[in-house]
Amino acid sequence: MDSEQQLRNEILERVFRIYQLREETKEFIPGKTRVHYSGRVFDEKEMQALVSCALDFWLTLGPKGSEFIKNFLDYTGMQYGLVVNSGSSANLTAVSALCSAQLEHPLLPGEEVITPALAFPTTLNPILQNGLIPVFIDIEEGTYNLNAQKLEEALSGKTRAILFAHTLGNPADMDFILDFARQHDLYVIEDTCDALDSRYDGKLCGTFGDISTFSFYAAHHLSMGEGGAILTNHLPVYRQAQSIRDWGRACWCQTGEANPNGACGHRFDHKYKNLPYGYDHKYVFSNIGYNLKPLDLQCAMGIEQLKKLPLFTEKRKQHFHMLYRALKKYEADFILPRTLLKADPSWFAFPLTVKPEAPFTRRDIVSYLEEHQIETRMLFGGNILKHPAYENIRYRIAGSLDCTEQVLENTFFIGVYPGLTEEMLKYVIQTFEAFINQH
After folding, report:
1. Which in 37, 110, 233, 254 has the greatest CB count within 10 A?
2. SS3 244
3. What stretch of H or E contains 83?
4. How far apart are CA 59 and CA 296, in angstroms?
5. DSSP string spanning 302-359?
6. Could you say which DSSP state residue 384 is in?
């Protein structure tokens, strides 16, 4: 009779064979095969990890989640972290944690958070969802990051935090931002969802601020299908983030905690106002929270993905530079992406802004690329304030939003992700050349 281990090994070997069969049928046909802007990049290791975890049938967050976050903390050098079910949930949890009444100096409703008007909705939404007031500033042309020189103009007596993304993996001016934040005693929240493995002055993005967020959506640098993470070096902030992720409960026991007295050792010894002495600590709620945990299945895949991250980063950089060298000759028509001197991006994508004097519009070139099976995307919401959802929010604008408006009207991006091949990128370059020659 076969043992369980023998059967497991046979299943995993069959999974490997399925992966091989699928790879053998892959073929790129220029003009017919879709050139995606991003996507999952994996091999049999991720498939086997997912199936093996499913065989264990630990459905909720558990040992694989603990293993992944330990490895992620080791990689980043941060002290505390937790996994969540998306980068959007990471942003919600991070901002909500800083609003927790359990902190000494929480953010309070009506206080202000400086943030760029060029934003993805779920970077902005947690500000609004927590009753805070966004103060919008413009971005820099070419880097697409918040213009740090505009921070002073945005400052008021109500300013408590700066929340921003490293746009498309391009690091923002962390020297200026951190100096400004220290000078005015502001929280710094880094949205690193598009910038995993990017560095500023040799230091990883997501390791500068008070709290940082990451996304492991299928399109991002590391994929769990869905998923995200929060990192911080501040234990009180971590405790509140964990509480908010886990229904708002007061205890910090891990899912499936085996210790009958809980992680603190005093599960039945606490006394809370309005609750009887010894009320089970696992069922005391100190924050208004959610259930934002991922599945252990996702984390099993993430463990294998993290091992590949250095290779993914190398390929992203290679693809970006190949496109940059080829498209530089069209600078008369496009604003090409640029970086700060200390920035070393692991690019999420390749942004281009059509200049007003170009003999074509963004719509012209995007339509042409899409017709030739090359995926494009707008740069997030452009000016997020122009979207229907935000017509009636409370906010301030500091200065003009000229560069943000330029993005709204004229910017798009194409892919550089590791799943692209040299053959695909050459086709992209040839398609640009054909379009330019027509105009």
Report:
1. 37
2. helix
3. strand 80-84
4. 6
5. HHHHHHHHHHHHHHHHHHHHHHHHHHGGGTTTEEPP---TTEE---SEEEEEE-TTSS
6. G
Place of tokens 């708002």: 248
In degrees, rounded to 5, the angle at the alpha carbon of residue 357 between the alpha carbons of residues 325 and 140 is 65
pLDDT tens per residue across span 199-256: 999 999 999 999 999 999 988 999 999 999 999 999 999 999 999 999 999 887 776 6
DSSP code string of 97-164: HHT-TTSSS---TT-EEEEESB--HHHHHHHHHTT-EEEEE-B-TTT-SB-GGGHHHH--TTEEEEEE
What structural domains does the chain harbor?
A: 54-297 (3.40.640.10), 309-437 (3.90.1150.10)
- Per the DSSP assignment, residues forming a β-bridge with 228 are 84, 215
Pairing of strands 411-415, 349-354: antiparallel
Q: What is the pLDDT of residue 413?
A: 98
Q: Would you say 335 and 355 are in contact if contact means Cβ atoms under 8 Å apart?
A: yes
Tens of pLDDT, residues 369-420:
999 999 999 999 999 999 999 999 999 999 999 999 999 999 999 999 999 9
CA–CA gap between residue 203 and residue 190 (Å, rounded): 14
Strand ranges (E), 187-286:
187-191, 199-200, 203-204, 211-215, 228-232
Reading phi first (left if > 0) and then psi (alpha if -120 to 50, else beta), residue 31 is in left
Rounded Cα distance, 162 and 171, in Å: 15
Is 372 catalytic? The answer is no
Catalytic residue among 36, 105, 220, 266: 220
Q: Could you tell me if 76 and 209 are in contact, meaning their C-beta atoms sit under 8 angstroms apart?
A: no
Q: What is the pTM of this model?
A: 0.95
Locate tokens 């908010």: which residue? 244
pLDDT by residue (tens digit) across 253-267?
776 666 677 667 778
